[in-house]
Amino acid sequence: MQQPKVLVVDDDPWVRDTLKDILEGVSCVVECAGGLGEGKTRAAAMAFDIVFLDVVLPDGSGLEAIEAFRSSLGRPEVLIMTGKASADGAALALRHGAWNYLSKPLNIDDVQLAVAQVVEYRRSGGWFPTSVLRLPDFVATSDTMVECLHGVARAAASQVPVLIVGETGTGKERLARAIHEHSARASKPFVVVDCTVIPEPLMESHLFGHEKGAFTGADRQRVGLVALAHRGTLFLDEVGDLPQSAQAKLLRVIQEKTFRPVGAGDERYVDFRPIAATHRNLEKMVQEGRFRQDLYYRLAGMVLRVPPLRRRKKDIVPIVQDVLLRQTESSAGELKGLSPDFVETILSYSWPGNVRELIHAVLHALAMSAESPTLYAIHLPEHIRAQVAAKNLGHPLPSAEPGMTPPMVPPAAPTSSFHQLTEEAWPTYKAYREKVTAEATRTYLDALMKRSRGDVARACALSGLSRSRLYALLKEAGLGVPSSCDATKPSSP
Ligand SMILES: Nc1ncnc2c1ncn2[C@@H]1O[C@H](COP(=O)(O)OP(=O)(O)OP(=O)(O)O)[C@@H](O)[C@H]1O
C-alpha cells in the first residue's frame, strides 16, 4: 500500500482537525466529513483504506452506517470512535464489522497503532496478522489459530475489554499477554488475578487492598491487584469462578474507575484494561443467573475463542517441532526426528489438556528416548498410548474432560475382552484403565515380536524396554517367550 487513505467522519471540527494532524503525521492522505451523507459521498468518490467514524452524527448513527462504509469503493476498515464508550456499543460495532472501537478523547498512540495494524493487515492481503505480532514462542499454523491471532492484533490496537474463551491449556493467558504486549499499555503492568485460588472472604482485600488494622490480621497496609494494574492490563483468569459478591465489586470498579481499599475512607481512581479468560460457558451462566449479565457485557467487548487442539490438528506437529527445537538449542544436542507411529499417535489422541499437555508429552518422550535419534510412540506417556490403542480397536476411552467433547457411545458388540461401557455395568476408571492397558500392551508386544521376528535384542532396541522387562511383560500378557529370550541373561538398562 502506498500512502494510506483515511476518511474522518465527525461533526466536531476540533476532532476532525486533531485527527487530520495526527494521521498526516504518519503519512496518511486525509479527507474529512461532518456527517454521514457527506462521508458516504466522499467514500463513493475515493478508495479509502480506513474510515474513522463517529457514533452520534447529525444525520444518523455511525454504528448503523458501518456496513455501508465497509462496502464502499475502497472496502475500507472502519474504526468507530465515541465519547460514550460502552462495552455494549463496542460489541455492537464489532458485530457490524468494525475493525475496532476507540473511545474519546482519542489517544494518539491508539490511533497510530490502529492505523499501523490496518495498513499491515491490508498489505498482507488481509489474512496474516502474525506479521505485526512478535510471538516467536507461539505456533499458529491452522486457519482457526491464524484467525485467532488476527483477533489478537485487532484487540491490541484498541482499548476494548476482551474475553478469551477456551479449554484449559489452549493458550488463553499467552494470548492475553500478547494483546497487552502489543497494546498502547505495553510499558505498564500486566497483572494476573487467578479467580480460582483466592478464597471468597479475602477476594475484596486481594483485589482492592486494605488499610492497616482494617480487620483482624491486617497488621500492615496492602496494595490490591487492581491498583497494581493502574494504566496497564488486569488479566482475570477463570473469571467464571468469581463469587457473586466479587462480581458486583468488579463491575463497579470497571464502570466507575474508582475503588475503595478495605478500611479506607476515600475512593481512589484507577485506569486499567480488563482482559478476562474462562473455560466456562459464560452466556449459559448468565442465563442460569450464576454470572451477572451487566458484568458479562462489560468484559465481552470483544470475544476471542481459542479452539481446542483436537480441532486444529494442523498445529500439533509444528508445536512438537517447536518444542524439540527449543530443547535442542538449550541442550546443544542433535535435533531428534519423529517416527510415523509417533506422529500417528499424537494426531489420534484427544489432548484434553491441549497445548500444555502436548508440551509435557514431548518433554516426557524426549526424556524416555534417551540416546535414540528418533521419537517413537512408545516414548509417549502410557495414558496417551492406551487411549489411542483403545480408539484404534474401536473402544474409545471416555473423555478426560466431561462436557467438552461429545459423549462416548458404548461399543454395540464388543469383539474383545474390553469392559462394555453401559449404564448398568460402568467399570471404575482404575478397572477400565487396567483392562485397556493390558489389551494395548498385548497388541503392542505381539506386533513388536512379529516386527523383530523374535529377535529379542532387536525388540529391546525398538521398544526401549530392557530384556528382563520385556520378558516379564511377555509373560504377563500370556504371549510365548521366544527361545532367544533368556531371563537369566543380564538385562540391558
Ligand atoms: N500455540 C502455541 N504455541 C506454543 N506454545 C503454546 C501455544 N499455546 C499454548 N502454548 C503454551 O502452552 C502452555 C499453556 O498455555 P496458557 O497457560 O496460556 O493456557 P491457558 O489456556 O491460559 O490455560 P489455563 O486455562 O489452564 O490457565 C504455556 O506454556 C503456553 O506458552
From TrEMBL:
Instruction: Write the record's keywords in alphabetical order, separated by commas.
Output: ATP-binding, Nucleotide-binding, Phosphoprotein, Transcription, Transcription regulation
Q: For the Sigma-54 factor interaction domain, which residue ranges apply? A: 138-367
Asked whether the UniProt record includes ATP-binding among its keywords, one would answer yes
Residues with 4-aspartylphosphate modification? 54
- SMART domains, alphabetized: AAA (SM00382), REC (SM00448)
Q: Which CDD domains match?
A: AAA (cd00009), REC (cd00156)
A single GO BP term for this record reads: regulation of DNA-templated transcription
**Where on the tree of life does the source sit, at the highest rank?**
Bacteria
Keyword ATP-binding attached: yes
What start and end residues bound the annotated signal peptide? Answer: none
One GO term in the molecular function aspect is: ATP binding
List, for all copies, the residue spans of the domain called Response regulatory. Answer: 5-119
Q: What is this protein called?
A: Two-component system NtrC family response regulator
**Source organism:** Desulfosoma caldarium
